[in-house]
Hints:
Layout: H1 3-36, E1 39-41, E2 62-64, E3 85-87, E4 108-110, E5 131-133, E6 154-156, E7 177-179, E8 200-202, E9 210-211, E10 224-227, E11 231-232, H2 235-240, E12 246-249
Parallel strand pairs: 1-2, 2-3, 3-4, 4-5, 5-6, 6-7, 7-8, 8-10, 9-11, 10-12
Amino acid sequence: xxxxxxxxxxxxxxxxxxIFLLTQCARIKDLKHSKExxxxxxxxxxxxxxxxxxxxxxxxxxxxxxxxxxxxxxDRISELTMLEKLYIGRNDIKxxxxxxxxxxxxxxxSAQYNEIEVLPDEICDLTSLEQLWVNQNQLTSLPxxxxxLKNLEILQAKFNQLDSLPTSIGDCESLRFIHLNRNNxxxxxxxxAKLSSLxxxxxxxxxxxxxxxxxxxxLRFFELIQIDRNTALPACMYVLQANRLQIIQE
Length: 250
């Protein structure tokens, strides 16, 4: 057989093998997706309304709607009772319905870069919630019943207009990371000294002449605090700086 024919057969065989391999990889990916299960990604699709498609699968666990032009969340969001992760960041949302409190399996709620002015009290009924991301909204307060979120580990509320924090935040016993940069706070509630799991607290730009309670020096896992020149730290934190506390000043 001429060498040119052998080369042709070789390239043909190689091409077929590559197509087969890519097909198998695609099948594996699809299989993996199905096992991870029931995820719907409609990010950056130019949507102006909450997609009806989301309600077709009552077993839906992950819903991504990032980067659309959706202006509201319907009350029937409560139908998605199996939902574990909800991403609605970078939309035009102004209002979160009270019915969101029915999502008892929700672990991550990300609503960053919207126009939300108020979080409903019912959001504190999300007893499985581990991460709450509400950066870049127009919030002036957080719900008084925030302390009901016993499993909350991450609270991100940067770039809002918060002027105070609810006293009940001290009851968020699993809270480890708190981001409050760029708000209008003047003081932190002393109840934050009860946050026994707290590791990192970010306060740069969190408010004018912001006072940090001395009682927080007793938090045994507290290892990092970010501040600016308007933050008043108790002397005991500078003592801890020599041992275990890292103070970052912007």
